[in-house]
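# nightly structure sweep
# worker-07 picked up a monomer target from the shared queue
# config: single-sequence mode, recycle default, output format = structure tokens
# input follows
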Amino acid sequence: MPDQVDFDDVADELYSLDPSEFVAARKDAVARARKAGDRKTATAIGALRKPTVVAWMVNLLVREEPEDVAELFDLGDSLREAQRRSAADELKELSGARQQAIRALTRRAVKIAAEHGKPGADDAEREIGQTLNAALADPDVGERVRAGRVVTAESYSGFGPAMLALAPELPDEEEEPGDEKTADEEPETVDQKALDKAREQLEEAREDEASARADAESARAEAESADENLAEVKERLARLRSELHEAEEQEAEARRTVKSADREARRLKRVLTDAQARTEEAQNAVDSFRRECSLQE
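# output follows
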């Protein structure tokens, strides 16, 4: 009985591969699962999406530098705790540390990818940094990054308290005294309802963007799967056509052989008939000769 295929082991293996090797390896893993009689696992493996180059760079970073990545997530936990306590000074310090850690990890990811023969594109560093930032703010993204199964570059599209974890460093300098408003100046008025509405629209736009990105990635994956299926069908069709052509040639040769054998059989039958007739004539002659000899005696 074929060995059972473990989904997590296969997923870990696939997302560690160069993206150019992903599709062939996934196809092989699906075939192994089907051979083992595990259709559920085969379907789950077949649904795994090929990662982009940037996603692969993040996955590779997680595998090559697990401790540094774990420290980044610990820093994210500290940021959330400082946010919860509204500790402004600590939040400022941790935000700076976060940015420094992400920059270092981003540079390391690009270097590791180059060592694997994949120099990063111009926007690779930016997208890697956005993905690591999103991993600290969005638990779902964080789970994918921790597992090293990122499919595409991520960005945080939510709105609200989690955004504090993505806030830039606070300014280092206090306001100059001359910048403070005097008692004679009118305070700046803010239309809170308009601000709330703008924030709501921003949140909706980000949600729409995230949804559109997910739909685009899903469509890309479906198109890729369709291309793979089409290539397999074309390959099978070409093979079947070749086999059909060979079978037709074999049939034609067999027909020629049958006709030739039939002609030879008819010729040999005629030869046999002639031989039988000659044998009968000779036998009659011998019998007649014997009768004559018997009468003379």
